[in-house]
Write the structure tokens for this entry.
Amino acid sequence: MASGSIGIQGIEALHYYVHDLDRTRRFFVDKLDFVEVGHSGAQLEQEGRQRAAAFQAGEALFVLHQPVGEGGRAWRYLRKHPEGVGTVVFDVEDIDRAFALLDERGGTFITDIQRFKDDAGTLAMFSITTPFGDTTFRFIERRGYRSLFPGFVATPAAAGASNRFGFERIDHLTSNFQTMKPALLWMQHVLGLEPLWEIAFHTNDVAADPTHARREHGSGLKSVVMWDPASHVKFANNEPFRPFFKESQINIFAEDNRGDGVQHSALAVTDIVGAVRGLRARGVEFMATPGTYYDVLPERLERIRVGQLEESLDVLRELEILVDGSEKGKYLLQIFLKEAAGREHDREAGPFFFEIIQRKGDQGFGAGNFRALFEAIERDQANAR
Ligand SMILES: [Fe+2]
């Protein structure tokens, strides 16, 4: 089977399908400080049967779509799933080459190449189905074309998309599958990605403590990261890991999402302490980290050979920022926002959430935190008894 890059240059945008565009706009603009850079024109809304608005922070771009009547893409997605990421848009170098390679390798096309032109340049694109549930991939070759999309209207004075929290770009996407092998093979053989890294983790093996021997619950996952070596686009992929398949957080996601799909998107920053402080001041909610995580953090940092951090442990504890790494002086700092359903107190807002990540030399995804967080929760529960 042929492999190799189809010429992906990066993730241009994520299309996020929602019931209530104004509600999600408030979150992106008022909480995360994304800038609204454009919206759908009347003709596009009529033709596509959906209303759209685009939000940018650094290079990270999200396009929100809300159904207008029935039959459009957003309506069809939301008929099956709660709100979530339904389309990933990639920039490619050469649209004809990308199309030909995907065709040769068994890609399934939703559209042929569509070509558009304005006074400044051209835009060409096509879409394919994927094994990521009902999430589709769109590939775009953009050569000077002004508008984000034909029929899109740019918001005046939204030229700069600088973000007060320093969001720079999408660092990675993480997706959950009930079984991920078909998706991994597809990413490798159709999309031309390569395996980068993998791990299996189960809370059932956490402790040698004999009280854990007859554990009657737990959560496990297997995770494989695939990447495009040329563009460094990374997909982390998870599936549930026995025992207690049903209790795995990955299976719970698949049930809440009513199928496989994108679980989270990580936004890269260069000052996570400042970012999280600012986001908390605006009322953004994060997944909680027990204080006991920090009690043992110095020992853990020695054990994983990271050693001293540049940041104060007191500040990390105060803000509940997580740390992981595997080499001296190289680490990452990360934190997860509350998932949309919890944030909006609405199950139909879906299980998608954001991560914020600052890389200080470590290229992993924070796998060590699965275990560290689980152990911290266990210690917390033991202390409460
Ligand atoms: Fe992540």
